[in-house]
């Protein structure tokens, strides 16, 4: 539990806030996480930390009510704790007009506004303005008088992103382009249609017809019910859509049924792998996300389990071996669709429930292999191919970035995605979106996905020293812009921007800062302000961006406060973090961070550098400590003033037995003290240990604390 919910978040406004839990999170505290022994302890801790409302046990309030009552009766909670939460909830409900006649000022808003003309327009505007033009070798905008084919696995579908609402309607890329041209367009999803034949029985995997589909079974049928469209989402994961009814195959904890409109659900039980064997046959492996959970004990391979051939989960040695016959080649069909057309639009990307969602990370950064192969084949067949990448994250596009003449990126942008793409591709809208993330060339540019320290690992545009595929803030336009000089004004900076191109367009002016010298490692650039400006051809506007001295602050770990250091700061304006068009400098009279004083109690978490260290909870109520994940783990406390000499180390330790060693200058520098710790029964039970420091532990130097594996350190001092 983090008391920052009360102590920090509630300071952001003078009005009452309502803090709610994530779904099922309270139960996880005693379930999968086993953080508390009873639900009463867990819910009491959450309530005292600032939670007001519990989302748990579906719609049954009984378990939560019982836990809170138990916490009250046992003294874990006071009635005032509950009263505070109730006050926060009621405050929101009153402000929403829930107790007013007719529901107050919001009561007249009903479901009809969801699909109102104004909201349709807004959805189209949002989808248009968010898209980013990544590359354009004079291929765009397209001519409405030309013919087009729209191909790719996302050409004629819209997927809702994780946590999206239900779309009231859907305009796919194919729909949008057809509407723009006023004529039907050739299309293909570019995916293979296959059959799977059991080599042992000679029977085919067969699905059902109708919306409800049927449990998959092996039969002698050789018709459309045995055919499946294979969608490749990368990392070996595919989804199977039955040609018999257009529904995806999913697992329902018992059978595999073709009844799903699209992949969905917490475990996304529509995922499979087609594992090729040495003899050329395939095993069909079930890959729903629950198979990766610690509690999953079932086998994961498919084979006939019933007398009627119904497929179920079996051990690998009992799995059916299938020959996979391609009834229709997706690449061949897409190539046929684009041949002879003036333009080919290839729409590739992700399935949000599979590729980028809560609790499950991508295992690589590239497009799915079959999607990349599709783009290459279509481009060979029609060199005027433009590519739309539809996903929610940076993608290492590899050779495609060099080969194709145009690349446009969009998110899964909702019901108006198709119209927005058509407006952009055909020039009725000028692309002006800019990337809010750095696009790297490959995963080799990044550390482990589990490494969250962007400073130490030189990650994001702020610290990355390599050459990205596309930099943070990047985005092209159909027109061009010229920047004037960057001038300081009373509340920030201003720069004149001129549209030097032939058509109206928007430019996103970005202001970055860089601190030239500092006690601490500083970003190469930090975005501090931006503004979107609309300009007609030849028009100039002066763009003012607010930037005050306080915006130059960074966190001083030596004193646990924000600080603006004295020094020279570069101020830069441009079209991206790598496309700086104007710059100036600013001399600031601020503070000089003094040397560290470790003579007073110092939080271990306020280190300058580290190795083999994790941040951990100091207690279940509050606080952060550090834990050594390997022997020889160390913490650096830079630029420490030991004065005329420090005589004693005092440290608060918990966890395993071991040693805490003090060294000067480096992790293997001069040894000046060793504290031995006998360990505690609980990682939350801290004991004070002391050790003398050798003579000569004085002056201004870097202090290193070297820890044994399993030690937890919350605070220390050198006096």
Main sheet?
6 strands, mixed
- The total of helices stands at 13
- How helix-rich are the residues, as a percent range? 10-25%
User: What would the average pLDDT be, to the nearest integer?
Assistant: 96
Give the radius of gyration.
Answer: 30 Å
Distance between the termini: 33 Å
How many strand elements? Answer: 38
Structural class: alpha+beta
Shape: globular
Which strand-content bin applies to the residues?
Answer: 25-35%
Spatial order of strands in the largest sheet: 1-18-17-16-2-3
Residue stretches low in confidence (pLDDT < 50, at least 5 long) are: none
Structure description:
- It contains 13 helices and 38 strands.
- Helices cover 16% and strands 32% of the residues.
- A hairpin with a 4-residue loop joins strand 24 (554-556) and strand 25.
- The model has no long low-confidence stretch (mean pLDDT 96).
- The chain has a 6-stranded mixed beta sheet, sandwiched between helices. Strands 28, 30, 31, 33, 36 and 38 form a 6-stranded antiparallel beta sheet that branches. Strands 29-32-37-34-35 form a 5-stranded antiparallel beta sheet, with no helix packed on it.
Give a topology summary:
Blueprint: H1 4-7, H2 25-28, H3 39-49, H4 62-73, H5 79-95, H6 117-130, E1 132-136, E2 148-151, H7 173-181, E3 186-188, E4 192-198, E5 204-206, E6 217-219, E7 228-232, E8 238-242, E9 248-251, E10 256-260, E11 272-276, E12 282-286, E13 301-304, E14 311-314, E15 322-328, H8 330-338, E16 343-349, H9 352-355, H10 369-381, E17 385-390, H11 399-403, E18 406-410, H12 417-425, H13 460-463, E19 481-489, E20 492-499, E21 505-515, E22 526-535, E23 540-546, E24 554-556, E25 561-563, E26 567-576, E27 579-588, E28 602-603, E29 609-611, E30 613-617, E31 624-628, E32 633-641, E33 648-655, E34 658-664, E35 670-677, E36 687-692, E37 700-707, E38 711-718
């Amino acid at each position: 539990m983090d008391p920052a919910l009360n102590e920090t978040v509630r300071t952001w406004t003078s009005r009452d806030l309502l803090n709610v839990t994530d779904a099922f999170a309270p139960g996880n505290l005693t379930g999968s996480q086993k953080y508390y022994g009873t639900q009463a302890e867990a819910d009491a801790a959450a309530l005292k930390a600032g939670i007001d409302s519990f989302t748990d046990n579906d719609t049954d309030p009984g378990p939560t009510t019982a836990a809170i009552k138990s916490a009250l009766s046992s003294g874990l909670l006071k009635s005032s704790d509950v009263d505070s939460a109730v006050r926060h909830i009621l405050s929101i409900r009153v402000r929403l007009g829930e107790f007013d006649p007719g529901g107050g000022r919001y009561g007249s808003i009903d479901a009809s506004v969801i699909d109102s003309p104004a909201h349709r327009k807004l959805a189209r505007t949002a989808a248009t303005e968010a898209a980013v033009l990544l590359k354009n070798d004079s291929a765009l905008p397209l001519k409405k008088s030309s013919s087009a084919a729209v191909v790719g696995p996302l050409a004629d579908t819209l997927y809702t992103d994780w946590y999206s609402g239900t779309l009231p309607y859907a305009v796919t890329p194919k729909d949008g382009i057809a509407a723009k041209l006023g004529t039907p367009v050739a299309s293909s999803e570019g995916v293979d249609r296959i059959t799977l034949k059991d080599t042992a029985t000679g029977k085919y995997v067969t699905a059902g017809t109708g919306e409800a589909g049927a449990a998959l079974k092996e039969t002698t049928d050789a018709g459309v019910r045995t055919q499946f469209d294979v969608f490749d989402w990368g990392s070996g994961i595919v989804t199977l859509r039955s040609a018999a009814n257009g529904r995806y195959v999913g697992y329902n904890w018992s059978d595999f049924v073709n009844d799903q409109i699209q992949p969905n659900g917490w475990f996304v039980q529509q995922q499979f792998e087609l594992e090729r064997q040495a003899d050329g046959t395939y095993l069909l492996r079930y890959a729903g996300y629950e198979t990766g959970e610690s509690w999953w004990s079932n086998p994961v391979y498919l084979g006939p389990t019933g007398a009627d051939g119904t497929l179920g989960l079996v051990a690998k040695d009992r799995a059916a071996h299938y020959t996979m016959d391609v009834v229709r080649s997706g690449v061949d069909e897409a190539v046929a669709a684009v041949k002879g057309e003036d333009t080919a639009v290839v729409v590739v990307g992700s399935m949000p429930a599979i590729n980028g969602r809560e609790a499950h990370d991508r295992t690589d950064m590239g497009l799915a292999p079959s999607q990349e192969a599709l783009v290459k084949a279509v481009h060979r067949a029609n060199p005027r191919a433009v590519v739309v990448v539809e996903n929610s994250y940076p993608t290492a596009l590899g050779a495609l970035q060099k080969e194709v003449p145009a690349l446009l990126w969009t998110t899964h942008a909702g019901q108006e995605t198709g119209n927005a793409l058509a407006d952009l591709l055909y020039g009725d809208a000028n692309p002006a979106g800019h990337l809010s993330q750095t696009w790297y060339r490959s995963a080799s540019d990044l550390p482990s996905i589990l490494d969250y320290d962007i400073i130490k690992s030189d990650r994001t545009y702020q610290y990355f020293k390599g050459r990205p595929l596309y930099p943070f803030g990047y985005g092209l336009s159909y027109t061009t812009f010229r920047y004037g000089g960057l001038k300081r004004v009373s509340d920030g900076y201003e720069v004149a921007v001129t549209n030097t191109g032939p058509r109206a367009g928007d430019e996103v002016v970005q202001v970055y800062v860089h601190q030239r010298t500092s006690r601490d490692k500083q970003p190469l650039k930090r975005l501090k302000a931006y503004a979107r400006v609309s300009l007609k051809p030849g028009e100039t506007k002066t763009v003012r961006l607010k930037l005050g001295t306080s915006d130059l602050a960074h966190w001083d770990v030596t004193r646990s406060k924000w600080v603006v250091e004295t020094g020279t700061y570069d101020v830069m304006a441009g079209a991206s973090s790598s496309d700086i068009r104007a710059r100036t400098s600013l001399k600031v009279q601020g503070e000089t961070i003094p040397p560290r004083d470790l003579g007073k109690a110092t939080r271990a978490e306020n280190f300058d550098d580290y190795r083999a260290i994790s941040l951990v909870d100091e207690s279940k109520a509050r606080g952060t400590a550090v834990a050594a994940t390997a022997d020889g783990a160390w913490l650096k406390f830079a630029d420490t003033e030991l004065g005329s000499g420090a005589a004693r180390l005092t440290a608060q330790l918990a966890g395993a037995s071991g040693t805490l060693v003090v060294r000067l200058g480096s992790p293997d520098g001069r040894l000046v003290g060793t504290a031995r710790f006998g360990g505690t029964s609980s990682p939350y039970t801290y004991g004070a240990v002391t050790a003398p420091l050798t003579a000569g532990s004085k002056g201004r130097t870097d202090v290193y604390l070297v820890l044994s594996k399993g030690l937890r350190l919350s605070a220390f001092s050198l006096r």
